[in-house]
Design a protein that fits this description.
This protein is of the alpha/beta class and 386 residues long. It is 31% helix and 23% strand. The strands form three sheets. Strands 1, 12, 13, 14, 15, 16, 17 and 18 form an eight-stranded mixed beta sheet that branches. Helix 3 links the parallel strand 2 and strand 3. Helix 8 runs parallel beside helix 9. The protein is elongated. The protein binds pyridoxal-5'-phosphate. The site of pyridoxal-5'-phosphate (PLP) has 18 residues, from helix 10.
């Protein structure tokens, strides 16, 4: 898997025109990631989890490629509807829906939704009586960076009774969904989840309830600083084989977020202050945990920092610009001796970054540019770098 990365010449040329911090989004990389996913999971349709990065042209690109969208709120559904995305290509995948979200789904015609409790059935019935319901099951997975099963999902034995209740209440019990946790580093959790879903499908069938849809969620990993690069191709191929074996006739969907957008964005920052703490250099840069690097907190993420200046690398600390002591964005980062004004690149920061950035302390959100819009003098067309 390749990632989008600006060259040092491009970084310098861009920084000469635009104040840092800024983001550069590669739509070509998003497209490549989407095609990679579809190639290695050919039977799996995509609902892009737009919370990972809702940049408008990422959404319109994926729309044009035929993707659907995983939404969690009225706002996300409205955004897509305003772009002309038809409601059949949206899933309202929040197991606990707001009154506003349900009204919006009803008005727009979004009928596919997930749930994990009987209480939610009543809410769906009264707002969207023809809803197609997928029950969300809980997956135990220690090999994921971000656990999404603490808050959501029912145990296996609770799934069928819930689908039965949904049917008795007049909804269409459509299938089962799960999320193995974000940045999942092995296939075991997926494979276990698929076996577990197969049992639910079989049990449902003995009761005359034919489930037709399986949603395998997100979690597909990207490179992470300081860790072995996950083999996404191998993970996908194994899942694909299991799907053919266990679900040869079922319609399969997935909700990748990070995988589609994570490697498509570069952040360009500047060093705004240098201090010595003992032997170590501490670099304050102009973007931090309250901005694009918010994933350091919310997403448990470890970013890479790459200096444009070269030199002997030493373990250093990288800090954000706010006046809060939580604003550490990197520890033990290998960097050459830097000076105030030096440029530092953060690659692979397209997922759960700008989406959760704030303007805390009065620091503006980093501006975002699309690589495809850059004049050839700044960024000549080229092959992406591995
Ligand atoms: C966040 C989320 C996703 C996306 O997860 P990634 O790990 O980014 O692929 C998919 N489905 C649901 C329900 C989510 O909440």
């Amino acid at each position: 898997m390749r990632s989008f990365r600006l060259t040092n010449e491009e970084i310098q040329s861009l920084a000469a025109r635009h104040q840092t911090p800024f983001l550069v989004i590669s739509l070509a990389q998003v497209e490549e990631n989407y095609r990679f996913f579809r190639r290695h999971l050919p039977r799996v349709n995509v609902y892009y989890a737009m919370k990972a990065n809702p940049a408008s042209r990422i959404l319109s690109l994926l729309d044009s490629l035929g993707a659907g969208f995983d939404t969690a709120s009225a706002g996300e559904m409205e955004t897509l509807a305003a772009m002309g995305v038809p409601p059949v290509r949206m899933i309202y995948a929040n197991p606990v829906k707001t009154p506003d979200g349900l009204r919006t789904a009803a008005r727009l015609g979004v009928v596919r939704m997930t749930f994990d409790d009987a209480d939610e059935i009543e809410k769906m019935v009264s707002a969207v009586p023809h809803a197609e319901a997928l029950v969300r099951v809980r997956i135990h997975n220690e090999k994921a960076l971000v656990d999404l099963n603490a808050k959501f999902g029912v145990n296996q034995e609770e799934a069928l009774p819930l689908l039965r209740r949904a049917r008795d209440a007049g909804l269409t019990p459509k299938g089962v969904c799960f999320h193995v946790g974000s940045q999942a580093l092995s296939t075991e959790a997926y494979e276990e989840a698929l076996l577990f879903c197969r049992r639910i499908f079989d049990e449902a069938e003995t009761e005359g309830m034919k489930l037709s849809m399986l949603d395998i969620g997100g979690g597909f990993p990207i490179p992470l600083a300081g860790r072995e690069t996950p083999d996404a191709e191998q993970i996908m191929q194994r899942i694909s084989r299991q799907l053919d074996r266990l679900f040869p006739e079922t319609e399969i969907w997935a909700e990748p977020g990070r995988f589609l957008c994570g490697t498509a964005v570069n952040l360009v920052t500047s060093v705004i202050g240098v201090k010595k703490r003992g032997e170590e250099s501490w670099y304050t840069i102009d973007e931090g945990v309250y901005g694009t690097l918010s994933g350091a907190i919310y997403d448990h993420w470890t970013y890479s920092f790459e200096a444009v200046r070269s030199g002997e690398a030493k373990p250093s600390t990288v800090l954000g610009p706010s006046c809060d002591s939580i604003d550490f964005v990197g520890r033990g980062v290998m960097l050459p001796e830097l000076k105030t004004g030096d440029l530092v690149l953060v690659p692979d920061c397209g997922a759960y970054t700008s989406a959760s950035a704030t303007t805390f302390n009065g620091f503006a959100r980093a501006k975002a540019f699309y690589f495809e819009d850059m004049p050839a003098t700044v960024a000549p067309r080229r092959e992406m770098i591995a």
